[in-house]
Structures are given as C-alpha cells and as structure tokens.
Design brief:
The complex is a heterodimer of chains A (about 375) and B (about 260).
Chain A: H1 4-16, E1 31-35, E2 46-47, E3 51-55, E4 68-71, E5 76-78, E6 91-96, E7 103-111, E8 118-119, E9 124-126, E10 133-138, E11 144-149, H2 152-159, E12 169-175, E13 178-184, E14 186-187, H3 189-194, E15 199-200, E16 203-209, H4 218-221, E17 222-224, E18 226-227, E19 232-242, E20 246-248, E21 262-269, E22 277-278, E23 288-293, E24 302-311, E25 313-314, H5 322-326, E26 330-337, E27 347-349, E28 352-362
Chain B: H1 3-28, E1 36-50, E2 58-65, E3 69-79, E4 86-113, E5 119-145, E6 151-164, E7 167-178, E8 185-188, E9 194-197, E10 205-218, E11 221-230, E12 247-258
Antiparallel strand pairs in B: 1-3, 1-12, 2-4, 3-4, 4-5, 5-6, 5-7, 6-10, 7-8, 7-9, 10-11, 11-12
Classes of the chains: A mainly beta (about 375), B mainly beta (about 260).
C-alpha cells in the first residue's frame, strides 16, 4: 500500500494540467468582404482594416446602394447588411464583435471620380491606428479619391513606439502648407533580419498594401493599380535624393554596392477589374501595356529639386481599346522607392528620397 | 562566474559542511547534533509553469516536453524528542525547472519583440511555442514524520532564488492583431515566426509549498518523490504581458544518501 504513494503524487500532478474551458465568444469585429452588383464595379473593392473603397463606373447611381457585408464570426453591423443608403458621401458602419466588447467603425466609400493627373503630396493624415502617415488625393469638391499605399503598415511590427515621422514613408515640409513625399530606407534591426527583411525602404504607390501578407510574401503584398481612363504619355516630377552610407545586402548586377532611388509607372489591362499586378509580376505580366521607368543614370543624388520626365514605352504588340479604356478596363500605378532593390531588402540605410509635383501627361 | 562553476563550488562547500558536521557529530556528540540526519540528494523534475485555472485563451496543448531538469542538494533533519517521530528538515537544493510546450491559443494577449528593442503587442490567435529553462537555489522548511517503517513523509514551504533564467518562445501559424482584437492583422505562416523573450521579467524570488515521501530501500539509500507548487507568480508583478499568473508545478523524483 505504501508503494502507492508515489503513484498518487503523480496523479495529483497530472490533475493540475486539466482540461481547457469551453470556447469563448469571438472578439473580432471585421468586415471580411463586401458584395455589390458586379455591373457597377470598375475594379474589385479594396477592404482594409477600417475602410473600404469601392471604385464604380461613372453612370452608377450612388444615392441608392445596398451593399452586403460578410463579417467576423458572430459579429453584427449597424446599419444592417443590405440597408439602402446614399453613397454620394462615404457612409460609416459600426461592426460589433460577438462578445460585445469590441467595435470598429468602417468608412465605406463609393468612388466614381477618376484619379487626377497631378499629385502634390500636400494631403496627408495619420492612419486609423495613429502610427504612420498616409497621403491621399482629394477631388475639387473635397472628396477623398485615393489613398496612396505604402509599406508603413508592415513597419508597425518593427517600429515599436517610433513617431510617424520616423516611418519609412512620411512627409517633408517644402514651405508653409507645401509638402513633399519623403521616403527613407531604414534598418529593421535583428528582428527584421530574422524574417529575412534586414531593411525597409520607403515606398509609395497607387494601389494597396496587403499587410496580412506582408510577412509571408512581401512582393505579393504590394498590390499595384487603380483604374485610369486616359492613355499615359509621360511621367513628370521633381526629386531630391541622398544615398545612405551603409549598404546592406548583395551587390547589384554591376557588382556595385551602391544605392539608387527608383520611380516607375505601369499601365495594364485589368481583365475587367479582376487583375491587380503586384511586386512579383509588375514588369513581366502579359497584361502590361506600357511602362515608364527612370533610367538609373538619372536616379542619382541631388541636393536641390531636380526635374525628370520619363516616357511610357508600349510593350511589343500592344494596343489600347478605347471602349475598354472608357469602362475602367485599364489600371495605372506610379511606384517610387528610396532603394531600387528595396523590395529584395537590398539598399543603403538612410537613403532618402523626396518626391513632389508628380504629373501624368496624357495623349488627347 | 558562470552557472556550472557556481553549482560546482556550491556542491564542494556543501560536501565540506556535511563532512565537517559528520566529524563534528562523531567527535563532539553535542546536544544539537544528537538526532540529526544529514543527506545529499540527486533528482530530476517534470512539470511546468501553468496558469491555474487554465484561461479560456489557451485552447489546447498540442505538445508538451518536460525536458530533463536535474537537481542536486544537501539537507539535514533534526529529529525531535527521543522517539524521533517528528522532525524538522531543511537544506539547500539547486534545481532546474524547465518545459517546452506548443499551445493553440485564441485571442491571446502577447508581445512579440526583437533584440533591437522593437516590440509589438497585440492579440494572437494561432500557435505559441514556449521554452522555459530556469534554475533555482531552493531552501525548503519541512515538517517530517518518521514513525512509519522505512518511510518518511514531509511537507512544508520552500523559498527559491532564480539563478539561471530563460523563458522564450515564438508565435507561429496564426495572426497577431496589433494593439488589440480590432487592430491590423499580421499573418504568420510558413517559416514566419514572431519571437518573444520574457526571461528578464521572471520573478527572482519564488515560494510555495511542497510535500513528499521517501522510502529507505537499503541502508543509507532512499528513493523519494515530492510535489512542489509555486504560490506566487512566475513573473514579476509589473509584468503585464501575460495577463494571468503562472505557477510552477513540478514532480521531483530522486535518490538520497543518508549519512
């Protein structure tokens, strides 16, 4: 009998690691997807953590729209999914989690206005988390037409409590009420290195950054493109550039460990609004129609504002369908970065690019 | 002085003290050393640090490895009265307490950090790997019952000081919502891991209760088993990242030699 004592002790210790409790109610309050009539869409809606952009055709009646929402498990939404509302102005929806403890306000915008052709980077705001800056474009009547995308939302993971001004993509003051985009290449420290991402180049582009995919597949997280109803001829702008001192990563094809900035624009057939090019196929996809890219010889250092103008070069055998163009069947994206190979995590720490007064010159 | 040197010198000192005391008992037979048993012991421990009760955030323990946690110690038992039924036991143990676990969690508040000091807190849903490997100097204070033939039972509090600290791990196969359940989603998949290191947040002092029994199966030799239960939090009071208290609970089995 005495020998059973040890056994009893063992059992007592096992009882400690007893079963887990029943699952609790969900705390998430996400809109997972939005459904609107396919015939009004130019391109697929973009759903982010706090906002949804629905780009619609110019003849859409915005006053009578009833979008449907797919939500986190058990979550509820107000106004209800399917409610008919006037989307001449963005509408706010509040999603409440299943457990009732968390809620999130989404701004849902139906955007009919085309993007403008000039970009002065004078409009920026803090993102919803208050951590980094987002540039946006306004129409003449003050509506938000487009947010510029950047990798800032992935840098949150590396930045800790760094202020927005220290993120890779932020603003620079040119003169009073006149700002420029400021892109800086940052070292990401041992933590970034662990993910095989030793640096974060400042970048800014038209499209959206899929922060969910940022770690698993950084190239594909950069989704480039907004509908564009003109035929682009050249891309103009002004810049300042200072190359950083400490180069990280392998040398380039010419064997140099030098950093350059980069700007390019791609114009492509979006397959009826279904296709978004990304960092992995931006120069190689068969749907590309034309590409404008600065020559490396021009992407050099400059302490004063320097102008550039680069032509859109048609891909071999491509033509533009006027009807498709009018229906939003082509996307454009302007992409700029402080390190030309930043998407492969090569570049010089503190390389700094300032860009201002961008303009797309079009035919017609 | 590194940890191994510390242990070695600790054992040498202990051996010296015990031997000296042995000689002392033989030569002086003073009143205190009358009815005192000395022992040395070697043991291994299995167990882990766990929240009690288990919080709802932890859904499932997928994998648990107790790791090989060894312990060495010396002690003495002062038997009371002539019948030697009750005694008081104390000593000094150096002991490892470790575990490796992989747990599935849902909406689990944590902080993923880098050595550069960058960190992001948020609610994680997915898998969490935890590797704990800590060593303590422990002083037990035990009431010992010795009236059974070949058996002693003992129970009482213990007090430990942390000498080697390691509480690390990583999150994987899931997503972190930055700042809280409604924050931006950051997905960890494939080889992406979000490491964490809470080693510096461990409580340097640990106390709790322990109870056990020893069976003398041969002259001078006993087999013992004991359960120790930490009553204060494994982590410091101002450490808020793990929102529930963690308690080390270990079963120790070993051999002791009674002089």
């Amino acid at each position: 009998m005495k020998y059973k004592c040890l056994g009893l002790l063992l059992i007592a210790s096992l009882v400690v690691f007893s079963c887990t409790k029943d699952e609790v109610l969900n705390s998430e309050a996400d809109i997972l997807s939005i459904t609107v009539p396919a015939e009004i869409l130019k391109v697929a809606p973009v759903v982010e953590n706090n906002r949804i952009a629905v780009r619609v055709k110019f003849d859409t009646d915005l006053t009578q729209q009833s979008p449907l929402f797919d939500l986190s498990q058990g979550a509820t939404i107000n106004p209800k999914s399917g409610t008919t509302l006037d989307f001449s102005q963005p509408q706010l929806y509040t999603v409440t989690s299943e457990d009732g403890n968390y809620s999130k306000v989404y701004t849902v915008s139906y955007i009919k206005t085309e993007i403008e052709l000039k970009y002065n980077f004078n409009n920026y705001r803090l993102d919803e988390s208050g951590k980094y800056h987002v540039f946006y474009e306004k129409s003449s009547n003050g509506d938000n037409i487009m947010d510029w995308a950047s990798g800032n939302s992935a840098f949150v993971l590396l930045a800790g409590s760094a202020p927005a001004e220290q993120y890779p993509t932020t603003y620079a003051t040119v003169s009073q009420d006149n700002y420029a985009a400021k892109l800086t290449t940052h070292s990401t420290g041992p933590f970034g290195a662990m993910f095989g991402m030793p640096l974060a180049a400042g970048n800014l582009f038209m499209g959206n950054f899929d922060s969910e995919a940022a770690l698993a597949n950084p190239l594909e997280a950069v989704k480039m493109g907004v509908p564009f109803e003109h035929v682009p001829k050249t891309l103009k702008g002004t810049f300042k550039y200072k190359e950083g001192d400490v180069f990280i990563g392998e040398a380039n094809a010419q064997g140099e460990k030098r950093d350059y900035w980069d700007i390019y624009a791609i114009f492509y057939d979006n397959n009826g609004g279904e296709l978004m090019l990304n960092g992995s196929n931006k120069f190689t996809h068969e749907n590309l129609v034309s590409i404008a890219r600065i020559e490396k010889e021009e992407a050099v250092e400059s302490e004063s504002w320097k102008e550039f103008e680069i032509p859109f070069v048609m891909e071999a055998g491509k033509s533009i369908d006027a009807q498709k163009l009018a229906n939003g069947g082509y996307n454009i994206s302007i992409v700029m970065t402080s390190s030309i190979n930043g998407d492969f995590f090569r570049g010089a720490v503190n390389s700094t690019l300032l860009v201002d007064k961008l303009e797309i010159i079009c035919y017609d | 002085m590194n940890f191994k040197q510390t242990i070695l010198s600790f054992l040498l000192v202990c051996f010296f003290v015990v031997t000296k005391a042995q000689i002392g008992t033989e030569q002086e037979n003073s009143s205190f050393f009358k009815g005192v048993d000395f022992h040395t012991r070697a043991s291994f421990s299995i167990g882990g640090s766990a929240p009690i009760p288990f919080p709802v955030e932890i859904r499932r323990i997928e994998h648990y490895n107790p790791t090989l946690s060894l312990g060495l110690g010396v002690g003495l038992t002062k038997w009371l009265g002539n019948k030697e039924i009750w005694g008081i036991r104390t000593g000094l143990h150096v002991e490892g307490k470790g575990m490796k676990t992989a747990a599935e969690v849902k909406n689990y508040f944590t902080e993923v950090i880098g050595q550069g000091g960058q960190k992001v807190t948020g609610n994680f849903t997915g898998m969490v790997q935890t590797n704990a490997k800590n060593s303590y100097f422990t002083l037990p204070l035990l009431l010992t019952y010795g009236a059974l033939e070949n058996w002693n039972l003992y129970a009482g509090p213990f007090f430990s000081v942390l000498v080697e600290k390691n509480f690390t791990g990583y999150v994987y196969d899931g997503y972190l919502r930055e700042g809280g359940p409604t924050g931006t989603k950051i997905v960890f998949s494939g080889d992406n891991r979000g490491p964490y290191d809470f080693s510096q947040d461990l409580n340097l002092f640990q106390w709790g209760v322990m109870a056990g029994g020893e069976w003398t199966f041969r002259k001078h030799l006993s087999l013992f088993g004991e359960l120790s239960w930490g009553l204060n939090n494994l982590f410091e009071r101002d450490f808020k990242t793990i929102i529930f208290d963690m308690h080390p609970i270990y079963l120790t089995i070993g051999l002791s030699y009674i002089f």
